Structures are given as structure tokens and as C-alpha cells.
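Long-time lurker. I teach an intro course on protein structure, and each term I like to show students one example going from raw sequence to a predicted 3D structure in C-alpha cell notation. This year I'd like something fresh instead of my usual example. Would anyone be willing to generate the C-alpha cells for the chain below so I can use it in lecture? Attribution to the forum is fine with me.
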Amino acid sequence: MTNRKVLVSGSDGRIGKATVRELKDHGYDVTPADIDRREAWNTQIVDFTDLGHVIGVMQGHDAVVHLAAIPSPEAHTNELVFSNNVVSTFNVLEAATILGVKQVVLASSISALGYAYRHRFFHPLYVPIDEEHPLLSQDSYGLSKLIGEALAEGFSRRSPDMSLISLRFTLVVDEREREWIKPARECPPDSEAAFGAFWTYVDVRDAAAACRLALEYTQPGHEAVFINSPHIYRHEDIRDLLAQHFPGDYPTAEHIRGSVSPVDPGKAQRLLGWTARYNWNGELFES
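-- Reply from a regular --
Happy to contribute to a lecture. Here you go:
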């Protein structure tokens, strides 16, 4: 994989920074690109909602990791969140198709399931949730990620030799988020955004590793995978948490108890060889 030239959009964001470092450490030739320059590397200033910008910066690359997005519906209007995320994803896929770039990794989200920012209550159809569970989002952010995956499916039909991976990231934990999680483990914030990800998390270094491993998966077609730790960050038993926040009659597998995640990351391991290495506190899991 050494010397492959990879464009990373959203390079100066949390996952982007870790991904650029991860790829460089593994011998990739990386072009960072973002709407603003916040890191010491030579970030290319690109508006990913402008197709001309995207085609211009993508020329000469072998692959793209598209991480640029508005990451929630909380700080922007619904129409801006939706249009920015959907148009930028379309532009990346359109530019890749025009330029013959055969490998695209997209940042999707657990929010595509629809629980994190739901407007009306609904419970899971079954637990553990896997990639066969329907995407039932109602909000602008979740819908933008749902449509991003639908776009990837469409472009895989248009260009059957493309390899497209949608990484459904959950709460991404870095040093800043760890400070939030410490009290949240004992006295959680009372918001659906907090428990709508089913108390799952992924260390930012593991998120970056998932991006690299997705680049190393070259089978044509589109696949979506959940990227989360096999454990939750809360102290309580997951069954008690589900009963409190997601009451209802739905099948729950016997092994979903204690700290076991109700969202199954097994497909990422089977498909990409990815497993979470770090606990919520930044320490390596015991082997």
C-alpha cells in the first residue's frame, strides 16, 4: 500500500487529523483538504459543496477518504446540515467517477439509524443491531448520512468496478471527549443525542485505523459497517439502559448484557480486519 496517493477531506477535523497521521505512518502519500486550515501540514482549501473544487483537488489521486461534513444537527439549520452533507458526498463520488478514482471511503454515522436525534420515539427492531437493521432516521443529519449511503449504492451501480466503504462511526472519543465521558458514566446528560448512539464509542485512533483498513479493502461494490467498541462506556447493565430508554417488545440476544454493546461491530472485523484497540479512557484493551 506504500506510496498510494490518497485525498483526505475534512483533514483538519478530529477524525481527519488522526487519519492523516495514520496514513502517513503507513507509507501513504496524503493530500489533506478542508474548508479551513487548522493544522501545520499543507491543507488544501476546498469547498466540497463545489464540484469544480473537488475535481480540481482530486486529480492525480488513487483513493479518497471523505470525512468533511457538518457532524450533527445541533449547531446549524436543518437545511444547511442536509444540503452540505449530501451535496459534498455526491460531489466526491461524482468527481471520483469522472476521474477514474476507484476507491472511496465515506464517513457515515450510527445516526443513520435514526435514534440519536429522533423527533418521535421508536425502539430497535432487534438487538444487537447490525448492518441488516433498517436505517430509520428522521432528522437532517441522520437523513444526510442515510442518503450518503444510498448515493454510494447508486454510484456502485453506475461504476461496478468502484470499491466504496461507508464507515458508520459512533461517538468518537479523543482527549476532549474523555473529559465528558468521565462524569457521563455516573451522571449522564439527559438528552437523546447522548443515548441515541446506544452508549457506544470509538477511540479516534481506532477510527483512523478503520479508514486505513477500508482503503486496503479493494473489492468492488458498496459495503457499510459499524465502527464502535464492543463495549459501552456506561457503568449500568446494558439491559437496564435499554429498558429505561428504549422500552418495547423486541428480541434481544442473550449475550447482550453487562457492558456488551447493543450495536454489533462484527462486520468490520470480518470484512476489514478492524477491531477496537482502545477503551473509553484511552487505554489499550487487555488482550
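Some talking points for your students: DSSP finds nine helices and nine strands in the chain. Residues 5-272 form a domain with the Rossmann fold fold (CATH 3.40.50.720).
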